[in-house]
Design brief:
Elements lengths: L1 H20 L3 H7 L6 H7 L3
């Protein structure tokens, strides 16, 4: 079961990273997000 959970977490992380990567610089600035924050934000999307 841990393998399935790990895979789902990884998949969720990759989707979040892809979604964040689609935002342009202006949108990110408006949201107060920098590209360096992407990994932490994507990891927090799993919770």
């Amino acid at each position: 079961m841990n393998v399935v959970r790990s895979f789902n977490n990884w998949l969720s992380y990759r989707r979040a990273m892809a979604d964040l990567s689609r935002l342009d610089t202006r949108m990110l600035h408006d949201l107060g997000i920098s590209r360096g924050q992407f990994p932490a934000l994507a990891r927090s999307s799993n919770r």
